[in-house]
Amino acid sequence: MTSQVSKKLQMAPEPTDKSSKYTLDRGMPGAFEGETVTRRRFMTGVVHGAGGMAAAAFGLPALGFAIGPIFQRQPWSWQIIGHPDDFVETVFSTKVITMVEGIGDAGKTIAYVRKRDPAIDTEPHDKYNNYIALWNRCMHLGCPVRYVEAAERFICPCHGGIYNFRGEVAGGPPVRPLDRFYTYAPPPGERGHGYVYIGPPYAVNSELKRFSPRDPAEPLDGIGQYVYPPRFDTPTLPSLKDLPLPPAVPGVGS
Amino acid sequence: MALTGSRGSAPPPSREAEPMTKTELATEASLTVVDWIDERAQLSQGLRWMMFRKVPKGINWAYTLGSATMIAFLNQAVTGVFLAMYYRPSVTGGAYASIRYINDDVPLGQFVHGMHKWGASVMIVLIFLHMGRVFFFGAYKYPRELTWIIGVVLLILTLVMGFTGYLLPFDQRSYWATIVGVNINNTAPFIGPYLGDFLRAGPEFGATTLSRFYAIHMMLVPGLMAALIGLHLYLVAKLGISAPPWLKAQEPEVAIEKVEV
Question: Would you tell me the crossing angle of helices B109-136 and B65-83 to the nearest 10 degrees?
Answer without folding.
Answer: 150
